[in-house]
Amino acid sequence: MDLIGGCRAFVSVSETGSFTRGAAAARIPQSVASRRVAALERHLGERLFDRSARRASLTPFGRDMLPSAQRLVRLADAMEQDAKRARLRPLRVAVPDICTTRGLAELDAEARAYDMFLEFRRAAPGDRAELVRGHDVRAAITAAPAEDGVWTVPLGVASATKLHPGAVHLETLRPGRHARLPRRRVWIQPEDDVPHIRDRLMRVRDAVGLQPAQVAVADSLTAAAADVFGSADLLLCSTAQARELGLHWRPVGELRLARGFGVTAVLDDDAERLRTRLWDGIAQCLGATSEGRPDVDRAQEADRAREADRAREADRAREGGPS
């Protein structure tokens, strides 16, 4: 039986002295209040109310049971409040430094439509998964090879000076024997200082005969952009970053490079919600393409099914049926 529902009806009727007023206080029909009290009496094996009088008066057994019923109702109310607060507890997510403040704010706003409240912690690619393992955050957007990623961000090179149409071939950066101009460099920002990007680029550097210093890892995106603004150097970046910085972007001629991102989380449910419900918002933050986008219709259908289940449960509760 519904022990908590029965105790709620029992307490409400005892406090008002009437099944009619007690049912109104509990926001249930009188017939439901009567059924719940009768079910509680059967469960406990003794009558709680003397129904021979006009007023719903407690039997001696009912007076003995009332304090326990009141404690159970208070405990159930407290549990519901705790559950509400727990649902509002922010989901702390480690995110790449490349995410802009506006992008994160828009992602947070989108998450609130799903009753998810996000807090963000920017971190380097090598640190984000470690933050999850140490339970400093509940989830992280982690770096992964493009072919394994949930989100994919194509990379190319960008320059402050206008570039020729078409791809930029790194071999064109090789200085001539009598060249007097400074050697042009390709700057790798910290987010791309991962083996599946850095090492591939370094192999091409060596294959086309560039000097080791011509492909270098910058201390920060800001430092890399500053070098590019003041020279003919190139920045390895996404098209979204190039637009933000006002740079001219082109793909790399010798190879296709892309960032890949996945999700690591303490709880599988958190990872699934980020991958499905917030796929678009995270993609926007990262500058990702639609390649690899999950079956959003299926995710939306699952959301609708859950909403329908909650609505049915609410209807049953109002009607007094079992949940």
Automatic annotation (TrEMBL):
Domain of life where this protein originates: Bacteria
Domain HTH lysR-type, residue spans: 1-59
Ranges in a coiled coil: none
Annotated segments matching region Disordered: 289-323
Name of the molecule in the record: LysR family transcriptional regulator
Annotated Basic and acidic residues bias: 292-323
Family per record: Belongs to the LysR transcriptional regulatory family.
Entry annotated with the keyword Transcription: yes
Record keywords, A-Z: Transcription, Transcription regulation
Any Pfam family: HTH_1
Listed GO MF terms: DNA-binding transcription factor activity; transcription cis-regulatory region binding
Origin species: Streptomyces armeniacus
